[in-house]
User: Which sequence fits this backbone?
């Protein structure tokens, strides 16, 4: 096994490309590995992160006329972008998708989708075999059961995939708080999608704006 370690193994926004796969109504209806509401929240946060850090993002669905369009929360982030609708279950066998990824000339391929055991695992394993550096965002994906999701993650790790959550990705892309060009957009994502952390940040801002009565007490 080749271990993934060292500084160059960390994800960089200028070398990342994101593919969001089959976040559709049919698939969401049988996601049982995660709270479906959390999956929608997490993939929306992931899409917003990619836009904030200017990471090219490919949107793809399968048989959308039957299975439903991509979640509105995702397409609202990229309102002018076409969604590639496939017949292939394995996204990496769809030439349109692969050609778009290759056209970015980026090497760090990031994938999230529904279901983990099918529409995530297949392209991840194929892309790994073709030499891509592949990361799966586990909490923006989901399977038909906890077992299905976890076994798929284990399978992909065994094939050489990197796995992380959307918040871990945010930290890795930001890397240095001295990089201020994306901080405002990043904070907006955290406030909207990171629950208690977002609330705590707003509270901190409230306290900083609250006058202190020096005569109190």
Assistant:
């Amino acid at each position: 096994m080749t271990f993934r370690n060292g500084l160059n193994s960390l994800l960089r926004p200028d070398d990342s490309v994101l593919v969001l796969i089959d976040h559709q109504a049919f698939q969401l209806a049988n996601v049982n590995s995660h709270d479906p509401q959390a999956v929608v929240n997490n993939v929306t946060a992931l899409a917003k992160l990619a836009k904030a850090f200017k990471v090219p993002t490919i949107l793809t669905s399968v048989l959308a006329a039957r299975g439903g369009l991509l979640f509105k929360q995702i397409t609202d982030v990229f309102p002018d972008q076409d969604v590639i609708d496939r017949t292939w279950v394995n996204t990496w066998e769809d030439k349109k998708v692969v050609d778009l990824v290759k056209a970015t000339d980026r090497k760090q391929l990031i994938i999230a989708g529904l279901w983990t055991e099918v529409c995530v695992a297949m392209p991840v394993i194929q892309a790994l075999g073709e030499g891509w550096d592949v990361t799966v965002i586990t909490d923006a994906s989901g399977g038909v059961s906890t077992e299905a999701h976890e076994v798929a993650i284990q399978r992909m790790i065994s094939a050489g995939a990197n796995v992380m959550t959307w918040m871990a990705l945010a930290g890795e892309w930001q890397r240095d708080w001295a990089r201020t060009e994306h901080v405002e957009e990043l904070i907006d994502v955290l406030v909207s999608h990171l629950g208690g952390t977002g609330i705590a940040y707003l509270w901190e801002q409230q306290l900083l704006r609250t006058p202190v009565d020096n005569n109190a007490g």
